[in-house]
Design brief:
There is one protein chain. The chain is of the alpha+beta class. The chain has 4 domains: about 80 residues, SP0561-like (Orthogonal Bundle); about 80 residues; about 140 residues, Four Helix Bundle (Hemerythrin (Met), subunit A) (Up-down Bundle), CATH 1.20.120; about 100 residues, Beta-Lactamase, CATH 3.30.450. It is about 55% helix and about 10% strand. It contains 19 helices and 9 strands. Strand 7 and strand 8 form a beta hairpin. Helix 6 runs antiparallel to helix 7 and helix 8 crosses helix 14. The longest helix is centred in the middle third of the chain and has 29 residues. It starts with a strand and ends in an 11-residue tail after the last helix.
Length: about 475
């Protein structure tokens, strides 16, 4: 076989299985090769040029190293096609230029000079290239928080090129079509806020209450779209955008609080409106086009599954779109033949499922590999969940600011130093108790973490005794 930028990773791994250990030893980014889920998704379509982009490993070095390892192990000398073709180099050159612009912005280089460089050097920039640029910056060590701070500047510098991008026509009911309709509904509320000639607190409170539904819009992105993009190796842009979601949530909460107290200022309202408008722009000029270029019809079907469980903001999705591909979600294997022998009895899979979903608590289970493998779909979940999280790393199911806490809990559980952690919060006037338990087998080996969330508001109010049935 020939070896070059377009050589598929799956073909290489099939012909030369020893390359897995070699690549993992070459760079930490290749540890994903040990993940069967990643190999069954990203590994099926990725070629060496894409692997180079996502890992940050120089393409020439990657190809040469693989060729030498194959020659050493098998004696076979492959024909090497170096990435000298302009078609292959152009996207890489543009991405490097974009990365340099962002790094210079980080250093404080005059923005007007960078805009000039951008116009001269970048004639056409695709949303996927901006996403890949952010992914590489994170891989190279730039903190996500720094990239988030620079995100508004990214858009300002790239706006001229991005405005020329025309999103392809979308059929009614497609997930992106629904997200865009929600953006139009959000803009109507924003326009009403902008049209206020004076600070009418009752009207502002009304509009802010309506804007609260934007959380459903963000939750569907976080729990349905982002997980599927992660299977393509695209996680950096999702993390940055999730952090911006949280900034908007915090600002909306702050402005609502100040409105209730009668102390909200025009500047605070303007800041909130600007953050919302900027997110709409980022979605429709970067995220959505990039996702449409990246995901297949069948993968969009996976995004679509479970959206109703989270809900929609202001609208109901239109009907019409039917995916051509087949959606695939991790499915539980139910033993319909008979019951399962447990330590203290026998239950069918149906009975177990019913018991878990009728408990007065919400539970989620993360296995020993930090993958979310189960959540109880109770009637009134405290925190929204959808099938999009199944198989996902638990670290990616939390906003960036919470990841350190998650990692600390997992590390302590795995080491055996701790076996539980608990938190309690006030949310929408309710008292919520959240507990985490290390799950270990009979030999004390760590097998995962159980999360249990419960609304204790009514329980805390109980007094005296109740000994009689009153219904």
């Amino acid at each position: 076989m020939e070896l070059g930028p377009k050589t598929k990773l799956a073909e290489l791994m099939s012909n030369y299985p020893f390359l897995k250990d070699f690549l993992i030893g070459m760079d930490d980014h290749f540890k994903a090769l040990d993940n069967p889920f990643m190999m069954s998704t990203v590994g099926r379509f990725a070629d060496l040029s894409k692997i180079s982009l996502f890992s940050g490993v120089d393409l020439d070095l990657l190809i040469a190293s693989i060729a030498e390892e194959i020659r050493t192990k098998t004696g076979e000398s492959l024909t090497v096609n170096k990435p000298g073709d302009k078609v292959d180099e152009a996207p890489i050159d543009r991405i490097q230029t974009l990365k340099n612009i962002i790094k210079d912005l980080h250093k404080g280089v005059d923005k007007d000079l960078l805009v000039t460089r951008f116009r001269e050097l970048i004639k056409d920039v695709a949303p996927t290239e901006i996403a890949t640029m952010e992914q590489q910056l994170i891989a190279e060590g730039m903190p996500e928080e720094e990239i988030k701070k620079l995100c508004d500047v990214h858009v300002q510098v790239f706006r001229e090129a991005l405005d020329k991008k025309v999103m392809p026509g979308l059929p009614a009911g497609h997930p992106v079509h629904t997200l865009i309709l929600e953006n139009r509904a959000a803009e109507e509320i924003i326009q009403k806020i902008n049209a206020l000639e004076e600070l009418s607190l009752p009207r502002i409170a009304e509009y802010l209450d309506s804007l609260g539904a934007i959380d459903l819009h963000y939750l569907r992105k976080e729990n349905q779209l982002f997980p599927v993009l992660e299977t393509k190796g695209i996680s950096g842009p999702s993390k940055v955008m999730w952090a911006l979601h949280d900034d908007i949530r915090a600002m909306l909460k702050h402005v609502k609080s100040k409105t209730s107290a009668g102390t909200v200022t025009p500047l605070e309202l303007k800041t909130l409106v600007t953050m919302l408008n900027d997110m709409i722009y980022k979605e429709e000029h970067i995220l959505f086009p990039m996702a449409l270029e990246t995901l297949s019809d069948g993968e969009w079907a996976v995004v679509r599954q479970g959206e109703e469980e989270i809900g929609y903001a202001w609208i109901e999705p239109e009907k019409g779109w039917e995916p051509l591909g087949t959606a695939s979600r991790p499915e539980l294997i139910s033993g319909k033949v008979g019951s399962l022998n447990l330590d203290t009895g026998r239950l069918t899979v149906e009975q177990i499922n019913l018991m878990l979903t009728h408990l007065p608590v919400d539970i989620s289970f993360v296995n020993e590999h930090d993958e979310v493998v189960y959540y109880s779909q109770t009637a009134d979940r405290i925190f929204p969940r959808s099938p999009g999280i199944i198989g996902r790393k638990v670290q990616n199911c939390h906003p960036p600011k919470s990841v350190d806490t998650v990692e600390k809990i997992l590390d302590e559980f795995k080491s055996g130093a701790k076996s539980s952690a608990d938190f309690w919060i006030q949310m929408r006037g309710r008292f919520i108790y959240i507990r985490y338990f290390a799950v270990r087998d009979g030999d004390g080996k760590y097998k995962g973490t159980l999360e249990v969330s419960q609304d204790l508001t009514d329980l805390r109010a109980l007094q005296g005794e109740k000994r009689l049935l009153d219904w």
